[in-house]
UniProtKB/TrEMBL annotation:
It comes from the Archaea. This is Putative Fe-S protein. Residues 1-54 form the 4Fe-4S domain. The keyword Magnesium does not apply. One of its GO terms (molecular function) is 4 iron, 4 sulfur cluster binding. It comes from Methanomethylovorans hollandica (strain DSM 15978 / NBRC 107637 / DMS1). It holds the Pfam family FeS. Keywords: 4Fe-4S, Iron, Iron-sulfur, Metal-binding.
Length: 209
């Protein structure tokens, strides 16, 4: 995205429909979307426009992310933070009576997902548990481990690194594919934190409109 941004006029005029050129750059997907910037057709930016067309075509092929089960196009795939096994997820068990501690393995089903998950608790706050997904059962490779049954859970947030695709802007509603998702299902949510390629996404929904 930085290369694309460097070739835009940089006027931050809002003519494209975005407040800043950076926001516009994050949304460019093809040559037609480039034309939302009226200045690129001016003679002084003709060379930039040709370079941008080449970059857009290249990034379109390299950064394409598609869900397998639904065939939906995602904006990016989300992978784990450095040296971690999966994206971090914040979950909220609908049954609040279970005593859960850091280090516990939970068995649960995310609201809206048909797959039973197993996850290790790495942090906690009242009613919310941050976990690493460690598998459906076959992924764990054993049948005799202990776990706590958390039942149905709401998925509140994801945190991870953009592995493939464009880094979104703050407050942007996105479609993303968690790399560890067994169904390779596209999720949606709102970006609430951006640090380089590290994101936190909240208001998670498995329904992608």
């Amino acid at each position: 995205m930085n290369k694309i941004l460097s070739l835009l006029p940089g006027y931050n005029c809002g003519s494209c429909g975005f407040k800043q050129c950076r926001d516009f750059a994050a949304q460019i997907t093809d040559e037609s979307s480039l034309m939302r910037c009226p200045f690129l057709e001016r003679e002084m930016f003709r060379t930039n426009l040709e370079q941008l067309k080449g970059l857009v075509g290249q990034e379109k092929n390299e950064d394409k992310v598609t869900g397998i089960i639904d065939g939906l196009r995602a904006d990016f795939s989300l992978g784990p933070l450095h040296s971690e096994c999966s994206c971090r997820e914040d979950i909220h068990p609908l049954d609040g009576s279970l005593e859960i501690e850091i280090g516990d393995i939970l068995r649960y089903r995310p609201l809206g997902c048909p797959v039973t998950h197993f996850a290790k608790v790495i942090d906690r706050s009242p009613g919310i548990f941050t976990v690493h997904i460690v598998g459906p059962l076959h992924r764990l490779g054993k049948n005799d481990f202990s776990f706590k049954d958390a039942g149905l859970c709401m998925i509140l947030a994801f945190e991870g690194i953009v592995i493939k695709g464009k880094v979104p802007s703050m407050c942007q509603t996105v479609k993303f594919l968690p790399e560890h998702c067994m169904m390779q299902k596209v999720h949606s949510g709102i970006v609430v934190s951006v640090e380089g390629r590290r994101l936190r996404i909240e208001a998670i929904d498995l329904k992608v409109w």
